[in-house]
Structures are given as structure tokens and as C-alpha cells.
Specification:
Spore Coat Polysaccharide Biosynthesis Protein SpsA, Chain A, globular, two-stranded antiparallel sheet, 38% helix
């Protein structure tokens, strides 16, 4: 492994409990004391969030346990998407590689080992554009310890400057270049409506960043490395975070075992892709429930089903 470890960038906003869980887990990583940590703290978007953001920042300045900590306290509200794009770009352009976390990701003690090892192994392979430290709770029986697929999972991930330079957040562009066959492949045989996120961004219904990273990788024939066992657990699906529903579909047990080998088969794993498709198909809600949820979100701001005890 390279003696120069990748810096970690962490993005926070107003969730103190989640942030503490993320930091404490990261501090317990075996390489934490050798790692530079950049923390981007977004400013409050309104007065209702000011106290929460201030409490986050008070906590951030008490953190210890890393080689160096640099806190970037935003003076204006960037929003999650713009904050991540700006933060990743500034750090990866300086250090050549980066590991990225958000404030609701609990990592295994081996997360930094896995990420740094992968970022070192594939640093000269232009086809590998993304390293994921997480994986959904798919059926992973008989899968290789690590494998490549096209979709980029962004719950604890890393990349290099020579890959990130292709990042393009332009919904007009993707709506023009993707044809029906590409969209079907992009959506993993329509098991998950990834491309709908680009359409929603285009309409101004949402403002996200990760779907454009996946699209950037896809159009540049890139691959994303994934582990068979997840090194990250998302604790943000409690309805409190931005773009996060309240559900347990993605709960995983995190691994503390490093892979014995890293894949050298630089093609998409057909078997892993099928497992992803099976997983997404298994968690799709019945049509009637999706219609009710859509109506409740539009009319009641998503609180209807909670009020009804559903």
C-alpha cells in the first residue's frame, strides 16, 4: 500500500446524532490516525436550521484521532449536491484521489484499509473509475470477493482525479445521448429507475449529484469496484435526511475482513448484475402502494402514511 493514504472528505449539515455515529466509527478505523480528514459543514438554509448547524460545528471542533483535520464551514448554504461536487473537486484535484463519506454512514474498522488498497491497485487503470465501500444486501453467494459493475454505489466511495474530471452534471446532455436501449441497461433491465432521477433533476423536482456520477462513468465505459461484503452501513433511512425515505430495505451487516484478492477481470460481472436486479425487483412496492405514496407526498408532504400509522 502507498504510504500516502487518501484523504477523506465528510459532508455534514444538521444531523448531530448521525454525524457523531459516522465520526466515531471512522475514528475506530485502523488507519484513522494516519488519515487527513476534511469536513465540509454546510450553512443553514434558513433560521429553523441555524441552531442545529451551530451544534454540529461545535462538535466538529472537538474531534480528534486523525492525522489532520480541516473543517470547511460554509458561509452560505450550498445544498448537498453542490457541496459534494465542490468539495470532492477541490480535494481530489490537490491529492489525486479521495474517499468520500456523508454524515449518515457507519464504517467498518477495515473501511479505510479496503478503500486505500483499491485506490492504489487501480490507480493506473483508466477503466476503473469508482471504488465503492458498500454494497446493498443482495444475495452474494458464490460471488467473487470483489467485482465490477457499471452502477456506482455512493455510500462510502472513492475515486481519482483522472476519473472525476469526466463528471458532468448536465441533464440536457444525458437526455439527448441516452437512447431506449441504453436507458434499459442503465436501469439494470428496468429493475431500478435510475434514469428517472435524471429526468427529475431536469424538471427541477430534485437536485442530486450521484446519478450524474453514475451517468458519467457509464458514458465513458467505466467500471465500479464493489466488495462482496459491505464495509459501510447507511443509518440515514429514517426520513430525516435529504433524499432519504424511511425504510430498512438497505440494512446490512458490515464486514471487518479484507478481501484476499482484488478483481483483475475488467468487465462487468454478469452474475453480480443479476443479483442487483433481483434485489431491486424484490423491494419494489406494489403499484397500488406506490400510487398512494405518490399522492401522499404531493398532497401531505409525505406525512399522510405516518399519520395513518402505516
Amino acid at each position: 500500500m502507498n504510504n500516502e493514504l487518501s484523504p477523506v472528505v465528510l459532508f455534514t449539515y444538521n444531523r448531530l446524532w448521525h454525524t457523531k455515529q459516522t465520526i466515531e466509527a471512522l475514528k475506530n478505523n485502523y488507519l484513522a490516525s494516519e488519515t487527513i480528514l476534511f469536513i465540509f459543514s454546510d450553512a443553514a438554509k434558513d433560521k429553523n436550521n441555524s441552531d442545529a448547524v451551530n451544534n454540529i460545528r461545535k462538535y466538529l471542533y472537538t474531534i480528534k484521532g486523525f492525522k489532520k483535520i480541516e473543517i470547511i464551514a460554509r458561509k452560505k448554504n450550498y445544498g448537498l449536491a453542490n457541496s459534494i461536487i465542490d468539495g470532492v473537486t477541490s480535494v481530489v484535484s490537490k491529492y489525486g484521489r479521495v474517499i468520500v463519506l456523508e454524515d449518515d454512514l457507519v464504517t467498518s474498522p477495515m473501511f479505510l484499509n479496503f478503500m486505500n488498497e483499491a485506490l492504489e491497485i487501480y490507480k493506473k487503470n483508466d477503466q476503473v473509475m469508482h471504488v465503492s465501500g458498500s454494497i446493498y444486501p443482495i444475495n452474494n453467494r458464490n460471488l467473487d470477493e470483489t467485482f465490477f459493475i457499471k452502477p456506482a454505489s455512493c455510500w462510502g466511495w472513492g475515486t481519482w482525479d483522472n476519473a472525476w474530471k469526466y463528471y458532468k452534471k448536465d441533464s440536457n446532455y444525458y437526455l439527448k445521448v441516452f437512447d431506449r436501449q441504453m436507458i434499459n441497461d442503465f436501469n439494470l433491465n428496468n429493475s431500478y429507475k435510475y434514469f428517472d432521477q435524471i429526468k427529475l433533476n431536469h424538471k427541477g423536482k430534485i437536485n442530486t449529484w450521484a446519478i450524474f456520477w453514475y451517468a458519467s462513468i457509464y458514458l465513458n465505459n467505466g467500471l465500479s469496484l464493489h466488495p462482496k461484503e459491505s464495509f459501510v452501513k447507511n443509518i440515514g433511512h429514517d426520513g430525516l435526511g435529504e433524499n432519504c425515505d424511511d425504510n430498512s430495505y438497505y440494512d446490512v451487516e458490515i464486514s471487518s475482513k479484507m478481501p484476499s484478492n482484488f478483481s483483475q477481470e475488467f468487465t462487468e460481472s454478469k452474475e453480480a448484475k443479476l443479483r442487483f436486479e433481483d434485489f431491486f425487483n424484490s423491494i419494489q412496492e406494489p403499484l397500488y402502494k406506490r400510487i398512494i405514496n405518490k399522492i401522499s407526498r404531493e398532497i401531505f408532504g409525505g406525512n399522510f402514511l405516518k399519520l395513518k400509522g402505516k
